Amino acid sequence: MLKTQKSKTELATFGAGCFWHVEEAFRTLKGVTKTEAGYMGGEMKKPSYKDVCTDRTGHVEVLQLEYDPKIISYEKLLEIFWKIHDPTTPNRQGYDIGSQYRSVIFYHSEEQKKIADKSKEKLTKIGVFGDPIVTEIIKTGKFWKAEDYHQKYLMKRGLKSCEV
């Protein structure tokens, strides 16, 4: 009997506004094997949604996803990241205002950092957004999983987006 080699998965973490819509944009992509909404980037240990919403913890609402790079590339994940939010508005996405909604790529390896930097530089050079890109590219920190009711929030409600 032949053994099949299981693909090795990698992590990617993005902050692009409310984590509900970020998760919905990525969770059904072929090659994405797991998604979790959570918080990253702040100093407080075990922050809650209520804590993060005070805009005083330094955390960002993020989606951390596990993906198979043999099926979907980090470059493709970044393409989607850039398309699902406005990376030119500091501390705001639509009606959501606060530093927890800032645009940020948390990289898990130097290779991811290199790819993210190159992607941002390319978009800046061609001026695709018109305004300067304010997206931060930061080394990953401690990921705090959000409360259960935030996980797959839109899917559980049969919604594709937060917009009315």
Describe the structure in your own words.
By secondary structure, this protein is of the alpha+beta class. It has one domain: Peptide Methionine Sulfoxide Reductase, Chain A (2-Layer Sandwich). The chain is 26% helix and 24% strand. It contains 5 helices and 8 strands; from the N terminus they run βαβαβαβββαββα. The strands form 2 sheets. A 6-stranded mixed β-sheet has the order 7-6-1-3-2-8, covered by helices on one side. A two-stranded antiparallel ribbon has the order 4-5. Helix 3 crosses helix 4. It is globular, with a radius of gyration of 16 Å. The mean pLDDT is 93.
What is this structure, in a nutshell?
The chain is of the alpha+beta class.
List the helices and strands and how they pair.
Layout (H helix, E strand, L loop, with lengths): L9 E7 L2 H8 L5 E9 L8 H4 L7 E8 L6 H10 L8 E2 L2 E2 L5 E5 L2 H17 L9 E4 L4 E2 L7 H4 L8
Helix pairs in contact: 3-4
The number of helical elements comes to 5
Structural class: alpha+beta
Question: What is the mean predicted local confidence, pLDDT?
Answer: 93
The SSE order reads EHEHEHEEEHEEH
What is the number of domains?
A: 1
CATH level 4 superfamily: Peptide methionine sulphoxide reductase MsrA
Number of strands: 8
